[in-house]
């Protein structure tokens, strides 16, 4: 995170390229190729992070969906795919304690 903030402060964009550093069978050839090309000389050392830096054009934030698209209305009666009455009651009590209900 600090490296990305430092890059941003310098007007650079930073994108992590971590897929080839993952240690699972499907990535084995890529893992070895990256370590052979850029890896440390000591046997017990490993690369922790690999990134791409650029000074490309600024891009705005990606579109976001609103909260309502992620949250379903709970079934307070306890029937059908919602939360049961016990969960609803706990939620109401917690909100009352927080002063927001």
Automatic annotation (TrEMBL):
Here the segments flagged for biased composition (Basic residues) are: 91-101
Q: Which InterPro entries match?
A: Nitroreductase-like
Q: Which superkingdom, per the lineage?
A: Bacteria
Name the Gene3D superfamilies on file: NADH Oxidase
MF GO annotations:
oxidoreductase activity
Disordered as annotated region, ranges: 73-101
State the protein's name: Uncharacterized protein
Q: Organism source for this protein?
A: Limnohabitans planktonicus II-D5
Upper classification of the organism = Bacteria, Pseudomonadati, Pseudomonadota, Betaproteobacteria, Burkholderiales
